[in-house]
Structures are given as structure tokens and as C-alpha cells.
Design goal:
The chain is mainly β. It folds into four domains: about 90 residues, Immunoglobulins (Immunoglobulin-like); about 110 residues, Sandwich (Immunoglobulin-like), CATH 2.60.40.10; about 100 residues, Sandwich (Immunoglobulin-like); about 100 residues, Immunoglobulin-like (Sandwich). It is about 15% helix and about 45% strand. The chain is globular, with a radius of gyration of 31 Å.
């Protein structure tokens, strides 16, 4: 009898052990992976990206001391040895930008650019700047360096079509300070906004190296956290945001830029609050649509595109949505001061769209001379309003269309409109108290459903815990985007919160685990009855 009981107990223990082992939760691999990454140090980037990323292509190249390819093979044909790199200099210094070529031939042509401006073709000077001198070794020397020389220079070698980008950083005090709302410059000017607007954002930017930091004041008082919260203003470094415009937000806003070199510079904008608006429905892009209520007022242009990418030979359509009460008595499109009319070149159509009145201008068979600013102007008995759209070949600004955080990575998808092929897209990110870091992104696909003008770009980042600001810009065959995207704020969770979440998820018993534990209890009950 005792032997039988021992055998039964052994069988029960064996079966229960198997069932319990099967039901026990497995450790989360993501937590250990994340912990390993945290031990890796302060780098914000990860060597691992999504499946379609090539680590060698994504990571910045590590340059040698002289920014050239080491140990070149003498048997190779013509080759550009100079690599992309950055040179720092001081005001009034002389600096030489290298462009070293291995085995140049008689048909080798060297071209120098400052951004998209041509400087030299071979020895032919295409600039009036006497400070620029081309060397016999194809290098470019710049004497008496000025703050405005801070730029990206490109050395291109033909016919091998190889280029080196040299970023020149000129250390000096801040300059060229500007306050903008949208794409418009309101530096030391007035800007009119509607009371109860959903959101109003102004941006203060200044050139200079090191990158200037910006502080704000309102009505002569520094906008610290307490004052900003009291007045309903949000300060995000160079951006000032008002999320619910009230009458008390009228007044002078001043921004000051300083970088520790020389004296700070400042600029101001006077904000005027105008007639009330009320929300009504939503527009085709999913955003709220706002326009004046039934009170009579001058017209309000509620939506327009400030910059429109196009291509030579294409037809470009510019659109303004507006509201007018009393009814508009004149709706015009102007090119400069010249009113436009229906013709073989231009087509103007008036109709309605999503509760709004709409005016559309089509520019047929776009030529180089058509790449200018166009203004739609609406007038009624109480006044007029206007909005400007610039037609150009540069890509539009990048828009964040999707983002998610998983496995310790921030995954982002950006959308850019460009009729021309994109050659580069850069992601710029920074922490709350750091400078922007620039990395390249990958063009993942082109949306063929929208005439090939829409490009989707992916990039994944591994960022430490904290608040981060991420923006993007694109370059096509004509140059960099007309404007950069307003930075998007992300809050990266801590490792502790991620591990806690992972434990919570793994600790919750699944259906299979519950069934297995239930079988154990049932088997135990049956054996007890046998005993």
C-alpha cells in the first residue's frame, strides 16, 4: 500500500511539474535588450533599425583626420578622395576647403557650389566675390571669413559624378534674427489674429555658430514658467504657442537670441487681436475649420497653401478657401501687382467646398518665369483679406503622418510633396537642453496614387528617456525644402516604466496557463480521493 502511494505521488509530481513548467511565464526579451542598450552609454542613435534599413548607410561615416580616403589604390581611375566633413573657423580668418582628386584626366571637370549657387567651373569664376580663390589642387580658399559664409559647400567632379559636401561653421555672435508666423516674416511688425483661434504659433530664429538659444518676453516682462502659465502661453524654446487666443494676448512679444559670442540680438512682433471666430465642422484633412460667425465682418481666408511644389511643363493649381459676410464683391488673383484673368495661361474658377467659398487659380504649362508668388484677394463692403502662395520647384515641408514607440525605438513616417525625385531627407532631433543632431533617412516608397508627387520616408531612432523634439526636411534635384517642419514633441518613456509594463503583461495569465493550472488542481483532488 505504501509503495502504491509513493508511485502515485511520483506520477503526480512529474505531471504537475510538466504542467507548471508549461504555464510559467517566459522572461520578456525586450526588457533585457533595452537594459543592454541602456548600458551602452549616451548615444541617442541605435545600430538597429527597421527591416528595410542598412546600418552602414544610416550611420554617419567616421572620417579620417584629413577627411580623405586612406590608402587609395593607384591603379584606380579618377576618384574624389575628399569626404563629407565639417570645418570650423573664426570671423576674418582664411580657410581652405579641400577637393583632392586621384588620377585626374584631361576631361575631368571640377565644380564648386555654395548650397545651390555655382561658384566655379574648372577655372571659370561664376561669382563676383573677390575673397574666393581656386587653387591648383582644386581646393577653394576663402579669405576674410564673414558670418554669412556659414554654409554648405559642394565640390563636384565630372564626369565621374562624385561630390563632397563641406560644412563651414563660422564662430560668431547671433545675426539675422527673424520672427515668423507660418511662412510670413513679421520681424518688428504687426500680425493680426482672430480671437478664440484654436492655435497661434510664432517662431523666433537667428543665425550664428554656436547655435543661438532663444528667450521670450511679453509686454516687457520675461516669460518664465509662472508668467507663461498665468497668461496661457506655452514656450517651447524658439516657439511661442497660444492654444486658445484671448483678448489679453494682444501686445508686444520680444525674443532674444544669444550664443555666448558677442552681444545678444533681439526682435519683436506686435500681436493684434481681431474679431471673433467660431469653429464649424472639419476640413478634408481632418483638422478643424474656423471662420467668422454670422456677424458681418471683412472676409476671412480660412485655408490656403503657402508654398506649392510644381515642375516645369506641369499645370499647377493654387486654392484659397474663404468666408465672407456680407457677400464678397470682388475676388482676385494677382501676380505681383498685376490682376490675373482667364486666358490661355491662367484659369480662375469660383465654387464652394466643405461649407466654404473657394477660388482656384490654375497656371498652365509652368515655365521658369512662373515660379513667383501669387496672391488671392477677397473684398467685401467691410474690408478685404489676402493670402500668398509661392510656386516653386523645391520640395514642400515634411509632415509627420505616423509614429509609434516599440522595442525601445521611436518609429516615424514623414510625407513630402515633390514633383521631382528626392535625393535626401534629414531627420533633426534634439533634447530639451541640447542642440539639433542631423541624421539621414530612407525613402521607403512613393505613393503612386497621387501622381507620384507624394513620398513616404521612414526613420527609426533610439532615444534616451526624456522630452525630444523631432523635425525633418527634404531635398530634391532642385535643392532643399522651402521651409523646415515645425518640430514635433515626443516623450520617451523610462526603462523602468517599460519593464514594469512588460512584467505586467507577462504576469497576466493566459487562457492556456489558466487551463493548465486548473488541470493540476483537478489531478491533485483526484489523487487525494484515492488516498
Amino acid at each position: 500500500m505504501c509503495q502504491e502511494r509513493v508511485i502515485k505521488l511520483l506520477i503526480f509530481g512529474f505531471i504537475a511539474g510538466l504542467l507548471l513548467q508549461e504555464s510559467s511565464p517566459q522572461p520578456a526579451s525586450s526588457s533585457s535588450s533595452l537594459s543592454k542598450e541602456r548600458r551602452g552609454g549616451g548615444s541617442a542613435l541605435d545600430d538597429d533599425y527597421e527591416d528595410d534599413y542598412d546600418d552602414d548607410d544610416e550611420l554617419p561615416s567616421k572620417e579620417s583626420a584629413d577627411n580623405e580616403i586612406s590608402n587609395p589604390n593607384p591603379s584606380l581611375a579618377t576618384q574624389l578622395l575628399t569626404r563629407n566633413h565639417t570645418i570650423e573657423t573664426e570671423l576674418d580668418d582664411t580657410v581652405t576647403l579641400p577637393c583632392r582628386i586621384q588620377n585626374p584626366e584631361s576631361n575631368t571637370i571640377v565644380m564648386w557650389y555654395n548650397t545651390s549657387n555655382l561658384l566655379y567651373i574648372r577655372t571659370n569664376n561664376h561669382t563676383n566675390d573677390p575673397r574666393l580663390v581656386l587653387g591648383k589642387d582644386s581646393s577653394l580658399t576663402l579669405r576674410h571669413v564673414q558670418a554669412t559664409d556659414d554654409s554648405i559647400y559642394k565640390c563636384t567632379v565630372l564626369p565621374i559624378q562624385q561630390s563632397a559636401f563641406i560644412t563651414l561653421k563660422v564662430r560668431g555672435p547671433p545675426y539675422n534674427i527673424q520672427i515668423t508666423h507660418g511662412k510670413n516674416d513679421y520681424t518688428n511688425r504687426e500680425v493680426e489674429i482672430q480671437q478664440h483661434d484654436r492655435k497661434f504659433v510664432i517662431h523666433c530664429g537667428a543665425s550664428g555658430y554656436p547655435t543661438p538659444s532663444v528667450t521670450w518676453s511679453f509686454k516687457g516682462k520675461h516669460l518664465d514658467d509662472a508668467y507663461a502659465k498665468h497668461t496661457g502661453i506655452v514656450i517651447r524654446k524658439e516657439f511661442l504657442e497660444i492654444h486658445d487666443v484671448k483678448a489679453h494676448h494682444a501686445g508686444d512679444y520680444e525674443c532674444m537670441a544669444q550664443n555666448g559670442v558677442g552681444e545678444p540680438v533681439s526682435a519683436s512682433v506686435s500681436v493684434q487681436i481681431k474679431s471673433n471666430v467660431t469653429e464649424f465642422g472639419s476640413d478634408e484633412d481632418g483638422g478643424s475649420t474656423e471662420f467668422p460667425d454670422n456677424k458681418e465682418a471683412r472676409p476671412a481666408i480660412v485655408k490656403h497653401v503657402e508654398y506649392l511644389n510644381t515642375a516645369v511643363g506641369e499645370n499647377a493649381e493654387l486654392v484659397c478657401l474663404y468666408h465672407s459676410n456680407p457677400e464678397a464683391r470682388k475676388v482676385q488673383w494677382l501676380r505681383g501687382d498685376e490682376p490675373l484673368r482667364n486666358s490661355a495661361k491662367y484659369s480662375i474658377v469660383e465654387d464652394r467646398h466643405n461649407h466654404h467659398q473657394r477660388t482656384r487659380l490654375t497656371v498652365r504649362n509652368v515655365e521658369q518665369k512662373d515660379l513667383v508668388a501669387y496672391v488671392c484677394k477677397v473684398e467685401n463692403a467691410l474690408g478685404e483679406s489676402s493670402a500668398k502662395t509661392i510656386l516653386g520647384l523645391l520640395p514642400g515641408s515634411a509632415h509627420l503622418v505616423d509614429s509609434n514607440f516599440s522595442n525601445g525605438l521611436l518609429h516615424t513616417v514623414w510625407r513630402v510633396r515633390s514633383a521631382q525625385p528626392l535625393s535626401d531627407l534629414q531627420i533633426l532631433y534634439k533634447g530639451e537642453n541640447t542642440k539639433y543632431t542631423t541624421i539621414d533617412a530612407t525613402i521607403s516608397e512613393q505613393n503612386k496614387e497621387e501622381s507620384g508627387d507624394v513620398w513616404n520616408i521612414k526613420r527609426s531612432l533610439r532615444l534616451p528617456e526624456g522630452e525630444w523634439f523631432v523635425t525633418a526636411r527634404a531635398r530634391n534635384t532642385e535643392g532643399w525644402a522651402f521651409s523646415e517642419t515645425v518640430p514635433v514633441q515626443f516623450q520617451i518613456p523610462s526603462e523602468v516604466s517599460l519593464e514594469t509594463q512588460g512584467l505586467a503583461e507577462s504576469g497576466s495569465p493566459s487562457v492556456a496557463q489558466s487551463v493548465s493550472l486548473g488541470l493540476c488542481l483537478l489531478l491533485f483532488s483526484l489523487i487525494c480521493r484515492l488516498f
